[in-house]
Amino acid sequence: PVMLGKFTWTEVFAKVIEAxxxxxxxxxxxxxxxxxxxxxxKPYLRVGILLLFSIPIVLVHTYLTAFLQLPFPGIxxxxxxxxxxxxxxxxxxxxxxxxxxxxxxxxxxxxxRSFMSGQIELERVEKRLIESHLNTLRMQLEPHFLFNAxxxxxxxxxxNPELARDMIEDLGALLRLSLDYKNxxxxxxxxxxxxxxxxxxxxxx
Length: 205
What we know:
Elements: E1 3-4, E2 7-8, H1 9-35, H2 43-52, H3 54-69, H4 85-156, H5 161-180, H6 189-204
């Protein structure tokens, strides 16, 4: 037989067939794992059930691999050809270790997805909390500012009507812009500067 490093082409071909057998068996593992999603809160129970299913699944894989390799006489290391208990146990153990590796990869991917979805949900909750906090501050500040502005206008109306008129214009523009953007967490910088211009004009008085 032709050597490929430390392996022969026959051994490599046998491993390819074994890998394809795992590809055929893996959907069954994924189906079982999906059925066990309700046990996310009990990971030990979930792992225990998956290990329990390892025996029939590895047996199916062992015989499926042996059946697929049977038409190739060069693959002599086949449980259907070498029918000894020791050889079958060795073959089965290799399959069981591969099954454990597949389960480990699936569970790691599941928990990673769960972790990432939890992080995304946490960010959404934090965003809603910040928005709620901003809305609360708005409700607290706007009436207080409005009352102070109206009192200032009232006190200037008799002595300095021109200043009172300017304040009314600034207050009207500020309230109109505030209503336009009341549901926005971000606004253009130019609009923000315009808001501040009216606000500071009132605050200076």
